[in-house]
Write a structure and sequence with these properties.
heterodimer, A: about 250 residues, mainly alpha, two-stranded antiparallel ribbon, B: alpha+beta, Ubiquitin-like (UB roll), Fumarate Reductase Iron-sulfur Protein, Chain B, domain 2, 10 helices, elongated, binds iron/sulfur cluster, binds FE2/S2 (inorganic) cluster
């Protein structure tokens, strides 16, 4: 224990006068995000059980070259960089992993000790500034996911609903909400303006900015639920595709 | 209740030789930490140095670290703290201690001077609508308690006082940058002298702000996005070249 009765005793890594369980905050993120990363990587490598009519796993959509004419590896690797980069550069995930993985800082008013620090000013972290481009990529991927969801209502040419259809619908709604609550989108739709009343289309842009702001206030929540839901959606489709469970037709 | 007491472990002295000293203080209903400090001053140690003015969470003078958490002493009730252990009251760590709980925060006023003041657009029509000033009004709630500056790890642990302005001054810059009638561009200043790139949006400033200003979400991240517009996004940079900002 550092000597916490003087000021100098408080500069060692991890020292703090806080008495609350400040370190607990990092645990859910480490466990759930770590678990998600491991699962998603394994599923991408697995290259199997991602399609069972009419459901396509979101980890493999859009499905490119599944028969390996020119791409010898799992098709998931062709697209996972989009959603992966989107989350890695997301302002919420940045906060969470800078704290939990980089310990910059581990907790508020918890000492980091004397380690070098350059923030997001240098390579590679300066690349976080491209976040909005990942937003554009993910928007295209979302269009495919919506298309997949529509296809999930089509059972051999007939309209139908299975448990998988519901799972995919909920998932695509949550993913869309996560995107719509993005800080970069909030900036692009209106946040960049200084004066809404002096700009052409200022009023609708103010309305759009307000709407994104309402979602953005819970950005962390949307980040979590959409991450869990996309993982579970893939898991459901994997279980059905591998024959472990049967999809129940509701309609 | 009448003879209940609490032990305060208060930092006394200067940065080199200072040490925590324990005081037993009688509790009264509704008491805040600043009351307890005043009680020590009145009854036990008249030379205890503490800075305060309003006792109403509005002047921003009484910042300290109570049980290790950056707080306004006048807004921290004694009954919100666990009674079974001594309550530590230390000066804010990021700024040099002058004596006891009083620190020298003058560095902040030097940073403030780097930020160019409001300059109206030429021929500005002096009429403003609520939707255009909402954002700025949140930032104007700041009471300059510097708790955010104190907790920010860029200043607290890495001592980047030369290169970094700190959350309080991102709030101030945001208020100016989002002002509907202002004509200046402070984005290059933010990127260079105020070093906004050092901020890694870990939100400790937001967590401690007694005015509940959403510093990270509403000031820093929108400013970082504006820095991207001017320095990192080729598309918006081209658009700005073709249609220069009004
Ligand atoms: S969010 Fe940025 S400015 Fe605020 S405490 Fe963290 S690093 Fe400092
Ligand atoms: S932004 Fe909040 S924490 Fe920072 S100086 Fe102003 S009132 Fe204090
Ligand atoms: S900030 Fe989180 S998705 Fe854009
Ligand atoms: S004494 Fe004014 S804010 Fe506490």
């Amino acid at each position: 224990m550092a000597d916490s009765s003087t000021l100098k005793g408080l500069t060692r890594f991890g020292s703090t006068q806080r008495r609350d369980a400040w370190w607990i905050e990092n645990l859910p993120f480490i466990i759930v995000f770590g678990g998600f990363l491991a699962y998603a990587t394994w599923r991408a490598i697995e290259n199997n059980y991602f399609w069972v009519a009419p459901y396509l796993s979101p980890f493999y959509s859009p499905l490119i070259d599944p028969h390996h004419h020119w791409w010898p590896f799992s098709p998931a690797f062709l697209i996972l960089g989009g959603p992966g980069g989107f989350r890695i550069t997301c302002y919420y995930y940045r906060k969470a992993y800078y704290r939990a993985a980089f310990a910059h800082p581990l907790g508020c008013a918890v000492s980091e000790g004397h380690r070098g620090y350059s923030g997001e000013r240098k390579f590679p972290l300066i690349l976080q500034n491209v976040h909005r481009y990942f937003f554009y990529v993910v928007t295209i991927i979302l269009a495919f996911l919506w298309y997949d969801t529509v296809v999930a209502f089509n059972f051999n040419g007939h309209f139908g609903i299975g448990v998988g259809t519901i799972v995919m619908l909920v998932d695509v709604i949550l993913l869309t909400t996560y995107s719509l609550s993005c800080h970069s989108l909030r900036h692009l739709v209106g946040g960049k303006l200084d004066c809404f009343s002096c700009t052409t289309f200022g009023k609708p842009r103010h309305a759009a900015w307000r709407g994104v702001t309402i979602l953005n206030e819970h950005h962390m929540f949307w980040a979590w639920v959409s991450m869990i839901s996309v993982g579970l959606t893939d898991l459901y489709i994997r279980l059905v595709a591998s024959g472990a469970i049967r999809d129940i037709r509701l309609l | 209740m009448a003879d209940a007491t609490a032990t305060l472990r208060v930092f006394r002295g200067d940065a080199e030789t200072g040490k925590a000293v324990d005081y037993e203080v009688p509790l009264t209903p509704g008491m805040v930490v600043l009351d307890a400090i005043h009680s020590i001053q009145a009854n036990q140690s008249p030379d205890l140095a503490v800075r305060w003015n309003c006792k109403a969470a509005k002047c921003g003078s009484c910042s300290a670290e109570v049980n290790g958490r950056p707080k306004l002493m006048c807004k921290t009730r004694m009954d919100s703290l666990p009674p079974d252990q001594p309550i530590t009251v230390f000066p804010i760590k990021t700024f040099p201690v002058i004596k006891d709980l009083v620190t020298d925060v003058s560095w902040n006023y030097e940073v403030n001077k780097k930020i160019p003041a409001f300059k109206p657009k030429p021929n500005a029509e002096w009429k403003m609508y609520q939707r255009d000033v909402d954002r700025g009004q949140e930032f104007r709630k700041c009471i300059e308690c510097f708790l955010c500056q104190n907790v920010c790890h860029v200043l607290r642990d890495h001592d980047k006082k030369q290169d970094f302005g700190g959350p309080r001054f991102f709030v101030r810059t945001a208020a100016l940058e989002m002002h509907p009638l202002d004509s200046r561009n402070r984005i290059p200043l933010l990127r260079e002298q105020l070093g906004i790139g050092y901020c890694n949006i870990t939100k400790c400033c937001t967590e401690v702000c007694p005015e509940d200003i959403h510093i990270t979400d509403n000031a820093i991240i929108p400013l970082k996005e504006r820095v991207v517009d001017q320095f990192y996004d080729p598309l918006t940079m081209i658009v700005r070249k073709i249609f220069p900002a009004k």
